[in-house]
Specification:
Elements lengths: L4 E10 L2 E11 L3 E5 L6 H8 L7 E6 L8 H4 L2 E4 L11 H11 L4 H14 L15 H13 L5 E5 L7 H16 L3 E5 L3 H7 L2 E6 L2 E7 H7 L5 E6 L3 H8 L5 E6 L5 E6 L2 H15 L7 E2 L4 H9 L1
Parallel strand pairs: 3-7, 3-8, 5-6, 6-7
Antiparallel strand pairs: 1-2, 1-4, 8-9, 10-12, 10-13, 11-12
């Protein structure tokens, strides 16, 4: 297995504040979501990956190279930070082109790459407007444009969808998926969990500077076998359905909502409930219209593991 990022015992602190503590992780090519509460160490981890800071202890390799002060690696990386640090006296295109020129790209090539990247993030019509006149969402897209302009192999993005309206957010998700299909790898950090879930099912969850969980969302959720699953069953006749379900093995509670239209079940044996429910519905005909389990999503896994 080839890994795009590998760390062993990675540690970084700021005085008495611990940013990372003994973080050991292996990240495969493709899109990976980096999630965790505020202050978990996500930003510190990304700064170590792009070589912005040096870890105090442990090892980190990015595409087989040590990232700190590594000019060779910088050509292969793209970084979209959360901080807003545009040059307001420049146009969006000029800003992207300027950064490309600083990295050694010839002028004509830098101009073409800047135009192409601004088009990809949906700013073709406004690329020649000064950054001082951009909205928050447009400024975010300029930061993304500079990160992808040189067509990096690995893209690191911190809260990439912040400030974007729903339509533009959807377009940016599509752009990330396009970049993945082009063979690029992306590590995307976000506190908006459903946004990560729209991009990938593979997550790295860190908490207090340590790795708490890693892998596919469904696999991590399956490991939480001691946690109950919650199911909602909208039904026309909820009382009869509730009376039958409450006697099933593994069911710990059954409630009916105030409108008496939904049966809410908590069970430690979800497969057993799935197996028994069809025959119950066939016998009672309670008018069940859906089977809803929200414990499979990233928000639920996050709450279970961190809480």
């Amino acid at each position: 297995m080839s890994y795009i990022i590998r760390t062993e015992g990675l540690a970084r602190w700021y005085g008495e504040v611990v940013g990372l503590s003994d973080l050991t992780v292996k990240i495969e090519p493709g899109i990976t979501g980096l999630v965790g509460p505020n202050g978990a160490g996500k930003s510190t981890f990304m700064k170590c990956i792009v070589g912005e800071i040096r870890p105090h202890r442990g090892r980190i390799q990015v595409m087989g190279l040590s990232p700190f002060a590594n000019k060779e690696l910088y050509q292969r990386l793209g970084f979209c930070p959360q901080q807003d640090a545009l040059y307001d006296h420049m146009t969006g295109r000029e800003f992207v082109e300027h950064l490309l020129r600083l990295s050694g790209t010839p002028r004509r090539e830098a101009r073409a790459q800047a135009v192409r990247s601004m088009e990809r993030v949906g700013l073709a019509d406004t690329m020649n407007r000064r950054c001082s006149g951009y909205s928050k969402g447009m400024r975010q897209r300029v930061r993304l444009a500079q990160a992808i302009a040189h067509e990096p192999e690995l893209l690191i993005v911190d809260e990439p969808l912040t400030g974007l309206d729903p339509i533009v957010r959807h377009r940016m998700v599509d752009l990330f998926l396009e970049l993945r299909n082009e063979g690029r790898s992306i590590l995307v950090s976000s506190h908006v969990l459903h946004e990560v879930e729209a991009l990938t099912e593979r997550i790295v969850l860190i908490h207090r500077g340590r790795l708490l969980a890693q892998g596919k969302l469904a696999d991590i959720r399956d490991l939480l076998s001691t946690q109950p699953r919650r199911v909602k069953l909208p039904a026309a006749s909820p009382r009869a359905l509730a009376q039958r379900i409450v006697s099933l093995p593994g069911v710990s509670s059954v409630t009916i909502d105030q409108d008496e239209t939904v049966v809410e079940v908590t069970t430690r044996d979800l497969p057993g409930l799935n197996q028994a429910l069809p025959s119950i519905v066939k016998e009672l005909r309670p008018g069940v219209t859906a089977f809803e389990s929200h414990d499979e999503d990233l928000e639920a896994v996050f709450d279970y593991l961190v809480g």
